[in-house]
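re: ur msg from earlier - yeah i can do the iron/sulfur cluster complex, just paste it... oh wait u already did. ok heres what im feeding in:
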Amino acid sequence: MTQLNETPQSIFSLYPDEISQQINDTWKLPKFRVKQLLEWIFTHRQHELAQMSNLPKSLKASLSEAYDWSLPEIVSKLDGSDGATKLLLRGAKKQIFEAVILRYEGRTSLCVSSQVGCKLACSFCQTGKLGFFRNLRTEEIVGQFLLANKILEPEDRKITHIVFMGMGEPLDNYEQVVKAVNLFTRAGSYGLSARRVTVSTSGITPKIALLAEQARASLAVSLHASRDDLRSELMPINRRFPLAVLKEQLLAYQEKTGEKITIEYILIRNKNCGIREAKELVKFLHGLKAKVNLIPFNAHPGMDYDRPEEADILAFQQHLSRRGYPAPVRYSKGLGVSAACGQLAAKHQQNLGDAPKRKSVVNQDF
Ligand code: SAH
Ligand code: SF4
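and the outut:
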């Protein structure tokens, strides 16, 4: 058979219509064969050619030459006692990144990474402390999903929800992330509902509008403070895209999509969760169709912050709910295996090599 590509592309980086077009243009196979192949990948979430039992041997051999079928390698797998499983993965390069499976009754979520490390240096975040190593490729993001599904097979579970809340800032790796999101949510590919795929961003505002145009997904925004001096202290990206700009973009996003936005708000003791900050948050929420998740800060060594007292969490929550903003408190799963939000990767820094020197995010190109 004719060679399809000179350097094989990853099969997992392609939309179904790209695969069928490439194959039809070069190989002239019967239609049902291409359909079988697409069903294996996108319906059965099967990534091993050897398991595709109804494809002829000769076709499998050609496919194996024409495309790159490799997925990230599982370096280790850590099971927590609370239904969380953390995967340490190695992709195209030596650095390690992480994905976390979160089992709940009736649903199974996967927290995926979009970058190794992160440029944005939020002061409370372990990934931010690492610095930035590289962007993950679409197939490395999709690969996290395929590997997780494989691990869940014996339990008769499948990933039902995906959250981009692992390592990295998804909108700082825009092209690769959008393609992965589209692969997850488009009919004919993995076909998850857009409500079940959430992109979480610290607020790279120009990309929020683009996302609304180019993909269907749910949007979560990590807010953590609603006045500029405090937010800039916690999240340096706020100096580049301050709250007023963020709010404007969120309003535009809602206008365009009609969808609710999730606001994530970490509660850090004596920092951002007094009544003053609750009032500021209510003001920020005005006019937005948002739901708020309150996340008590996950403490980790070497960081000066702490989780607030329960009474302070409750007071903050009540202030919001009395003003019409119900705000559930989300206690993170995965703490036992260092797999909770913002805790990814720190334990394996030694495997990552030296991070390049950091440019201030104010001067980054987004
Ligand atoms: N970069 C994106 C997505 C990855 S971070 C973002 O910032 O939204 C995923 C979530 O984990 C964010 O809401 C982030 O603020 C939160 N997080 C980071 N460190 C945390 C910590 N120590 N405790 C609780 N949540 C944390
Ligand atoms: Fe990056 Fe998100 Fe961590 Fe901030 S919270 S450093 S944006 S991963």
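cool cool. Residues 75 and 88 are 5 Å apart (CA to CA). ping me if u need the other ligands too
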